[in-house]
Amino acid sequence: MTAFHPRYEHARADTTTCHKSSSNPGQSAATRIETPLHDGLDQRPKVARMSAPVYVVLGAGPGLGLAVARRFAREGYVAVLATRTSSGAEPLAAALRDEGHRAEGVGVDLTDAADVSAVVTAIGERYGRIDVLHFNPSAWREKDPLHLTVPELLEDVTLGAAALLPAVQAARPFLRSGARVLATGSAAADKPSAVAASLACRRLPSATW
Question: At what angle do helices 164-171 and 113-127 cross, to 10 degrees?
Fold first, then answer.
């Protein structure tokens, strides 16, 4: 099965406004809090720097990606889950929000370095920090070595390995002291499948920096 990676679909961004009372005479009686809804990225309003740490996973899915995001969310992290499209990421984020965690879903085309940079930069600017950048992409292309083409191989290597480079470069200004970059792989890195030759070539071994 060939993996497709459509461009990130930009959507309308809105904010909700709430007011809270303050017992401090030096503060305004009403504080405006802007909370981005979960239907866009590039047009969303930037918010003040957060005290809560931020976890970002590129290549989120219902398995490992969601499980790791849930683990960090339980520790108080804001979880940002990125898949090929925002519509694909939103159900994952909604599952965490239903559990009482702060989470959002965004779309990113990991085969497009410019899109990777733009999405990661927008996340960093919106939250003011990135504490964990988790690289976890995976796509199954059922092609053995005798039928796999060079363009297909390069696309898959870009998705599964090379996309980490622009992601780290874009995240670097927002990585605080103690921040981590996490890359997770699969058994295919050590035990490649003959029917999906490109999978082993593009999978990074699990590592943390």
Answer: 30
